[in-house]
From TrEMBL:
Family, similarity comment: Belongs to the ABC-2 integral membrane protein family.
ABC transmembrane type-2 domain residues: 36-257
UniProtKB keywords: Antibiotic resistance, Cell membrane, Membrane, Transmembrane, Transmembrane helix, Transport
Bilayer-spanning residue ranges: 38-58, 70-93, 119-142, 148-169, 176-198, 236-254
Cell compartment(s), UniProt: Cell membrane; Membrane
UniProt keyword Transport, yes or no: yes
Pfam families tied to this protein: ABC2_membrane (PF01061)
Topological category with respect to the lipid bilayer: Multi-pass membrane protein
Protein name per UniProt: Transport permease protein
């Protein structure tokens, strides 16, 4: 005989950590199934790395193998494409179609939703970094430096670009976010020290470009991975400032509908 209460429903929200994990897994699956997002986050950085490492198209201003200069910049580009461009566009259209409004009314707190999105970005970046590292090593890359320093640069870069991407997605219309995010991606690809050394720019312009988060991330990664430098405190400081400003502004002005 079945005990009393065995099949009594117990309505209520799942534990918070489970909700965040489930939402993060969903966000990651949606990103990996999106052909446009894969093009932006995986295919373009990989093609750029292979193309510019094997064909003498751009003068990197560096001695030695081109891949040693390009690989750190492409890793920075991968963070930019996922944490900023891809996240801004996806979140902008979720906001437009009312997805964020509905999720905001679910048992999942809004801060937990943003945490899940951040976890999804980090998982995607791990896959990106692994793929780009394999490609770069196959092209003859010889990385140096402390992996923990590299991880710290990537985490701070992710925080900086995530804040800026969420700020754009929460403040602009979806179509404006789409255009602006892609434009910023192209501008930073050219002027962020990713493919072209900042030494090629005039001194006055270079001084401004060096303060950009993409320049700090690509420059810091290059100092560590190519030159075997220690902790690049200056670049970490720039990324930390951008992270605080971007995340703070996103928390203040992000609109859910």
């Amino acid at each position: 005989m079945t005990a009393t209460g065995t099949f009594t429903p117990q309505p209520g929200a799942a534990p918070l950590h489970r909700m965040i994990r489930t939402q993060a897994a969903l966000e990651t699956r949606m990103l990996l199934r999106n052909g446009e997002q894969l093009l932006l986050t995986v295919i373009i950085p990989s093609l750029l790395l292979v193309l510019f490492s094997t064909v003498d198209i751009v003068d990197t201003g560096a001695d030695g193998k081109a891949v040693d200069f390009l690989a750190p910049g492409v890793l920075a580009l991968a963070v930019l494409s996922t944490a900023f461009t891809g996240q801004a566009i996806a979140t902008g259209f979720e906001r437009r179609y009312g997805v964020l409004k509905r999720l905001g009314a679910s048992p999942l707190p809004r801060w937990a939703l943003m945490t899940a999105k951040t976890c999804s970005v980090l998982v995607t970046e791990v896959l990106q970094v692994a793929l780009l590292t394999v490609i770069a090593l196959a092209l003859g890359w010889s990385p140096h430096g402390n992996p923990l320093t590299v991880a710290l640069l990537l985490l701070l870069g992710t925080a900086a670009f995530s804040g800026l991407g969420l700020l754009m997605a929460g403040a602009l219309k979806a179509e404006a976010t789409l255009a602006a995010a892609n434009l910023v991606f192209l501008l930073l690809l050219v002027g962020g020290g990713v493919m072209v050394s900042l030494d090629k720019f005039p001194d006055a312009v270079r001084g401004v470009l060096e303060l950009l988060p993409i320049s700090a991330l690509s420059g810091g990664l290059r100092d560590v991975l190519r030159d075997g430098a220690g902790v690049p405190w200056g670049d970490l400081g720039i990324l930390a400032v951008w992270a605080v400003l971007g995340l703070g502004a996103a928390a203040r002005w992000f609109r859910w509908e």
